[in-house]
Structure prediction request, 79 residues.
Amino acid sequence: MKDFFAVSPGLYPAGRIEWVLVDSLSQTTNRRWGSIVRQTQIFLALLLLFLHLAVFGTVGWMGYREIGLSRAEKKQEKE
Prediction:
């Protein structure tokens, strides 16, 4: 793809653009499916991890806040 931009005179002929797109797509389809599946699995695992961290962080923060509010109410009742 570097040679396309290095040699091109500034106007991109349709035939040359098609050639670059076909070449790029063929390189993508020639990749091993195992690496594509592995990358997808890693991405989904990280997404799931971040989702769990967000949910448990929010629930934990709400519980911590509720405990703090109940302690403050007990202090006010004693006074």
Q: What stands out?
A: Residues 33-78 form the longest helix (46 residues). The mean pLDDT is 78. The two ends are 76 Å apart (CA to CA). DSSP finds three helices and no strands in the chain.
